[in-house]
Structure formats: C-alpha cells, structure tokens
Amino acid sequence: MKKYIWIIATVAVIFIVYHFSVQAKNNRLENALAIQYSNQLTSASEKLIKLSDSIDQTLLFQDKAALDKPLNDVWRLSSDVRASISALPLDSETSTAWMNYLNRIGNGASLVKDGKVPIEDWQKNMSNARDNLRSLSDQWAFTNREDGSKDYIVSSFVNNKVNKSNEKNWKALGNSAKSYTESDFPMTASETDQQKKKDLKHIEDSEVTAEQMKQKFIQLFPEFKGATIHITESSKDAPYPFYHIQFHKGIRIGYADFTKKGGHLLSYLMERPFDQTAISVEQLKKKTSTYMKSFNYADTEMVEYRENNIAWHITFARKDPENDALIYADGIQLKVAKDNGELLGLNAMEYIQKEKIAPQEVKPLNYKEMFSSNFSVEEERLAYVENKELQQRLAYEVLTKNDSIGTYRIYIDTETHEILHAEKLP
C-alpha cells in the first residue's frame, strides 16, 4: 500500500512541477508577445500621426508643385500603415475595414497627384479623415491605456490571435517573438565619428600664443581676472588646432575653447550655485545682446529662447549682410543664468565654421496661388535652409495659419519655388 502511495505522490509531484514549468513558460511567452505587440502598436500609432500630418499639408496648398511631395507622402504612409495593420492581431472585420479605409486614402492621393480628382474634392473629404486617423492612433496608444498593463495587452491582442490550448500556435508565435527580440541591430557610429568637426581651414588669421590667449580670455571675461587659469593645446590628431582653458575663481569653475588661429571663442561653460530670483525677458535680451557684441558676434539675430528652473537657453543665427536673411546653419547657442543673466554657456562652433553661400535669384511668389483659400499668411522673411542635397538655399520663411488645422512654418525656395521644409508648430 505504501508503495502505491509513494508512486501516486511521485506522479503528483511530477505533474505539479510540470504544470508550474509549463505555466512559467507560458508567462514568459506572454511577456515576449506583449512586448512584440506593444512595439507593433506603437509603430502603427506613430505612422498614423505622420499620415495625419501629411494629410494636413495637402490641405495647405493648391499649387500642383507644392502638393507633389505631401501627396506622395500620403500615398507612401498609407501603404506603411496597412502593412503595420496586417501584422497586428486584430479581428478580421476590424482589420479589413481599416485596410480598405487606408487604401482609399492612398488611392485618392494618387488620383489627385495625377490630376484625375480635383484638389478641392480631396481637401473636403480629408478634413474628416485626418480626425479619424488621430482617433485610431489614440486608441492604439496602449501605453497610456490601462497604464500599459501587460494583462490588458495580452487579453486584448495576444488572446485574440492565439488559443492557449493550441501548443502549435504557441510554439509558432514563440519562434516569431524570439526572432523579433533577437534580431541583430546595426552598430552605431562611434562617438569620435559623431563629434567629428570641420577642419576650419577657411580661417586665415595668424596663430596666437598661449599667453596671448590668456590675455584675450581675461579681456572677454574680465570677471575672471585673478582667477586660476590653466591652458592646454589640442592633441595632434584633433580636427583643428585649439586652446582649452580651465578656470576657477571662488564658487565659479568652468572651461572655454578657442581656435588657435585668431583666438575665436568656440565654446564656454561655467558652473556655480543659483539664487531663486529671475530676470525679465527684456533684461535677458539686453544681456545677450551685450554678450554677442563683446564676442564680436553682432551680425546675428535671436531666433529662439526658452527657460528651465535655473537658466535661459537662447539661439542666435547669423544674418546675411546682403539681404538680412537668417543663416540657421551658422548658429550660436547661449545659456544664461535666470537669476542675474550671467553667461553660463556658449557654443559657437557652427558660427565659426561658416557656411559658404552662393548667389541666388529671388523671384516673387503669389501666395494666393500657392496656398488654399482658408490659409492666411501671418509672417514672412528670408532665410537660408538646406535642401535634399544639403545645399544652403535662400527661401521664403512663411508663417501660415488655419483655424481648424493650425499654424505651419514653411520654407519655399526663392528661385524654384520648391517647398524645402514644412513644419507644424505646437
């Protein structure tokens, strides 16, 4: 009798161990599948937002050339989203409905591009479509729903695709999840390559000595007269020769880099404790204007400023002396203390590198022909921006607004009237 009890107990233990082993295996697979579907849903949601943004741009214009790129984007993105939906574990009815809907959007964009459908009809229909796409994107933003719970993802998506009792399906999905999570990723560029700079060969100034550099540093930053200053030269394999200055005075400590040719200020960083007081925006503008003049960067204009709890972050761009166009690629970034306006940081690398600007014709632009009738032009100025070939092109920088869609900043080539960039403002 004892022998039978021992056998039954052994079998029971084996069964319990096997049960918990299978359960643990299933839980691991649920986690893997939840991650896989989580990523797929996130990707699909992001693509829907991009598709909606591209549709917004087709509502901006009525000019055929200006519409070419956004219509192409709508056609391409609608295809991308359909591919994402086909990979999701949705029920066939829902999947089919959305696949057909996106197919109509893509085909419609293609027909408008070919001149087979009037742009007015497209813009009328797409006003509702963009809202539908954003609504679907919100539904799929599962990370904000049920707090991104794994149980919600499993119950809503995993169990919708697989039957837990069907081991073959579990195994197939398990292999898929393993392939997904173990796929190889391309190696990123090394930090050295990412930080590689231009060689600054265009600087024709004579080289300055370390002592001359020290005197210029004190001239630019008289508050550090009497500070402990240590100067070193760049290494032989540096992309360009420069001086690195370390300084320390009282509660302030910092660093600065200057080109060896001409002693141009490249970067500056200073640290100290901060008070709770704050200067006004007008005081900020006066302070930064003074700094830019003292560093001989007066040929610039402030283009952006924002704040955090301790500092203002300001961006300047060089102005072309010929036409006052902003050259965004020749930028300078400043960090200014919020309590008293003291300079905390500066990066003038882009400004020192200096873009080579080619002459370009400025042809008048008829905004009534370019934009649809429900958009109004709020601001206009000239600016240099990169095109697809990374060439600096003179462009009309136009701020245009529509009450239902929002505000866009658009860059239009002054010579070809090509749309170089279009961005929606928050």
UniProtKB/TrEMBL annotation:
Domain of life: Bacteria
Domain Sporulation protein YpeB N-terminal intervals: 26-110
The protein's name: PepSY1/2 domain-containing protein
UniProt domain Sporulation protein YpeB PepSY1 and PepSY2: residue ranges: 168-354
Organism of this sequence: Psychrobacillus mangrovi
Alphabetical list of InterPro entries matching this protein: YpeB_N, YpeB_PepSY1-2
Coiled-coil zones: none
Alphabetical list of Pfam families matching this protein: YPEB_N (PF20769), YPEB_PepSY1-2 (PF14620)
